[in-house]
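Continuing the batch. This is chain 6 of the set; chains 1 through 5 are on the previous pages. Same settings as before, nothing changed between runs. Recording input and output for traceability.
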Amino acid sequence: MTSRRTFIKKSGLFVAASTVPFSNFMIPNQKKKLGIALVGLGYYSRDLLAPALQLTKNCELKGIVTGSPEKIPTWKATYGIEDKHIYNYENMHDIANNDAIDVVYIVLPNALHMKYSMIAAAAGKHVWCEKPMAMTVKECKSIIGACKKNKVQLAIGYRMQHEPVTQEVISWASSKPFGAIKTLSSKAGFRNGGGDGTHWKLHKELGGGAMFDMGVYPLNAVRYATQLEPVSVVARIENSRPELMTADETTYFDLEFPKGIRAECKTSFAENLNKLKVNCDNGWYGLRPFQSYTGVQCVTSDGRILQPFKGNQQAKQMDDDALAIMNNKKPLVSGKEGLRDIKVVEAIFTSAANNGKRIKL
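Output for chain 6:
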């Protein structure tokens, strides 16, 4: 996958999804682990999900879908994946005939999430889709509809909502140990050097940009920390390197919630940012970092420290989602949650495009 043009050609980004067979695949009750197929073998699959699957109790890596055949030998050698469980983007629908694969995990550029989530659902496989769920509200609804039609579960890869320290912070929205929430501040970003300029995260048409990549972290954080939905947003975008990226480099967005709660958020490809702070009537609490792969830590105004979860975040997320399928229960982070974030993301871009106009939600 040496360039955007090569990737687009391989993935069929601008070609409508082909017609695929429908089936209602059911997981046998006696199955102890679910077979997972990873779609897209980039950094997140290679360095994080695949290793994490070796640590899970309820699922196992069974298959791969890739448009880069040169990657296949390494995956076969490392994980013992059989040829019959290896697919490309053109024949992915054949997974419908593979009983060893129960779940298809979409780990592709954001602009491809809808197409391949729908192919997976139509093949009768449960769908795990990386965040952000899709590019637009319409796309999110299409994924939800396809999963409902084919009677498969849909879970979105918001790993932080599975992380124990974060879950404790989420519970404080109800228990209010420091009184009512008044304001929040949440920021996530990193310095993206740009490399040779071909990486999809730099380009708007592939779903790149700081807001889609890192911005959903602070957005989702202020939503789960308050357990409320924002009622309006004001946003602006800055790009100091237009020659490098066609997508947003830095996005500021301020959210208003019910009860007068306000959140100040920022995401960027120009600087390292990683914090969440919640200010309340009788104190505060904060996570710094709040979305690190290696763990998050919470500190409170009364001196409490919640130490980082020592387990693997991705493994816990996938085990949780696998149990939801096996027990026929709703996943912790459903398609509706992904849709809610994208509704706000659309409003953020609308506000920024209109000189920071306040957009009601």
